[in-house]
């Protein structure tokens, strides 16, 4: 389990959008999980090997994607903010199993939105809007470097998908 669902769990919140990352065969994994749960599954993005299982009665979706890179740590490095760059292995029984290479837990405790690395926002301009949304949603401050990267990222929004930008504005 990775991303926002892990962040929400650390904050004691329930998430209805669960993202899982696997080394390979994400769509196959989604279909296997769907079969086990007797829930519909489908390929969300065949090109990037992303599958989804829909638990309609619970209002929950389970997304399965392949690692971004060669390993879990590479995957987490490629995420937007430290508070979203944590993982919880499927076999975990306690919070001691949390994978947190970029100190996302500490940033949650300190109520800070911090980019994972210097190019996080430049790599995807939508993340500039998302930084503001995360700050507003959780009442967190933007870390100085992250705040400085917001305007240059937002200036590049015209180069991104209009639908993604619209969705981020709506969420904000």
The unreliable regions are none
Helix content: 40-55%
Rg calculated over all Cα atoms: 16 Å
Distance between the termini: 25 Å
Strand portion: 15-25%
* Gross morphology: globular
What is the structural class? Answer: alpha/beta
Could you describe the largest sheet, including whether it forms a barrel? 4 strands, mixed
Sheet with most strands: strand arrangement: 1-4-3-2
Order of helices and strands: HEHEEEHHEHHEHH
Q: Helix count?
A: 8
Count of extended strands:
6
Provide mean pLDDT, rounded: 94
What would a concise description of this structure say?
The chain is 41% helix and 16% strand. With 172 residues, the protein is of the alpha/beta class.
Report on the structure:
With 172 residues, the protein is α/β, with parallel strands linked by helices. It is built from 8 helices and 6 strands. The chain has helices at residues 4-10, 26-37, 72-77, 104-109, 120-123, 126-138, 144-155, 162-171; strands at residues 17-22, 41-45, 50-55, 60-66, 112-113, 141-142. The protein has a 4-stranded mixed beta sheet, covered by helices on one side. It has a two-stranded parallel sheet with strand order 5-6. Helix 6 (126-138) packs across helix 7 (144-155) and helix 6 (126-138) packs parallel to helix 8. The chain is globular and about 45 Å long. The relative contact order is 0.12. The mean pLDDT is 94.
């Amino acid at each position: 389990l990775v991303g926002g669902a892990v962040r929400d769990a650390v904050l004691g919140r329930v998430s209805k959008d669960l993202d899982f990352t696997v080394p390979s065969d994400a769509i196959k994994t989604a279909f296997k999980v769907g079969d086990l749960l007797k829930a519909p599954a489908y390929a969300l993005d065949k090109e990037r090997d992303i599958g989804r299982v829909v638990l309609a009665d619970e209002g929950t979706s389970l997304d399965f994607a392949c690692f971004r890179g060669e390993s879990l740590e590479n995957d987490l490095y490629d995420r937007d903010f430290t508070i979203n760059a944590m993982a919880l292995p499927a076999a975990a029984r306690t919070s001691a199993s949390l994978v947190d290479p970029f100190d996302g837990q500490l940033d949650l405790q300190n109520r800070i939105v911090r980019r994972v690395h210097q190019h996080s926002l430049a790599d995807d301009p939508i993340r500039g809007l998302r930084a503001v949304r995360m700050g507003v949603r959780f009442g967190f401050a933007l870390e100085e470097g992250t705040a400085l990267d917001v305007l240059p990222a937002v200036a590049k929004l015209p180069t991104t998908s209009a639908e993604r930008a619209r969705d981020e504005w709506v969420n904000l």
